[in-house]
Amino acid sequence: MQNWQVSPGTDRIVVLLFDNFSNHCLANTVEPFRAANTIARAPLYTWRFLSLSGGAVTSSSGLPVETACWSEAPPEGDYLFLMPSYGFEGLATGTLAGALKAARGRFRTLVGCDTGAWLLARAGLLEGRTATIHWDELTRFAEAFPQTDTVEDRFVFDSDLATCGGASTAMELVLEIIKTRHSPMFALEVAALFMHGDKLDLHNPFQRLTAGRLVSSAAAIMRRRIESPLAIDALAASLHVGQRELEEAFAGEMQRTPRAVYKSIRLREARRLVELTTLSVAEIATRCGYQNASAMTRAYRSEFGVTPREHRS
User: Fold this and answer.
1) Contact status, residue 161 vs residue 125, Cβ threshold 8 Å
2) Which of 100, 59, 74, 83 is nearest to 2 (CA)?
3) Rounded CA separation 287/93 (Å)
4) Which PROSITE patterns match (predicted)?
């Protein structure tokens, strides 16, 4: 999406690429935004790929991406993602530092992905701020920039600056942007398209999950048990936590109960089947854990404002 397509409510994103950038990191940054547009059926996000000199920029795996020249960037935007990887120290020139200082006034948030925090720090933008970087460089980064509070978090938001480590953390950061910009349920729906958080390790009963991880793990089980939904106490037991702890995690992360989120997940699967299959409403109801079509139709109308038949027509 190289055209700067903007409509009311659209967030504008610029991805500044450098030679040897991580293609995995780029995909994990852009694809959740693309998925958000797909689910919403609206251009919630639009993006452009830029480089300092324009032309083709080649990733560390040899994939070329055509970019526009930095000087052709629009005067303002919502997010500027910096995406260096290998050879990042050689990129931290005075020219880039000047460009980033100027960009700070043109973009709502500057984001350093992978080793992007190094470029932000060299430009003097992380003094007195909290940041993280790819964990291979964490110690060197902390020693090189003692005025920055360097932490081992997977991603960090510090007002108008954000940083994250490698490719998987880029997706987590983008999902957090979507969650904050729209809603926790919408971000969960985007994450589900990538099976994000679906790899569960529940063999260790002494493992303590953060609230966010507990919610994503519970949601993964919910998606696996749509046709025959689990009771909430059974769901909590499968995660080795009490029902109260699970409910508190959902209240904090989703502002909804586990039961309400479970219902929304089932109804979104019903919507997918309405749109993409010719299954009868009764069959869809059965596949989504409803005892009869009438019960699902009532819930569907409450969730989406139309009945399944009206939606399909």
Assistant:
1) yes
2) 74
3) 57
4) HTH_ARAC_FAMILY_2
Find where tokens 């989120």 sit: 261
**Domains in the chain, CATH or no CATH each:** 11-181 (3.40.50.880), 197-313 (1.10.10.60)
- Which amino acid appears at position 129 of this protein? R
Residue 59 amino acid letter: S
Residue located via tokens 């769901």: 235
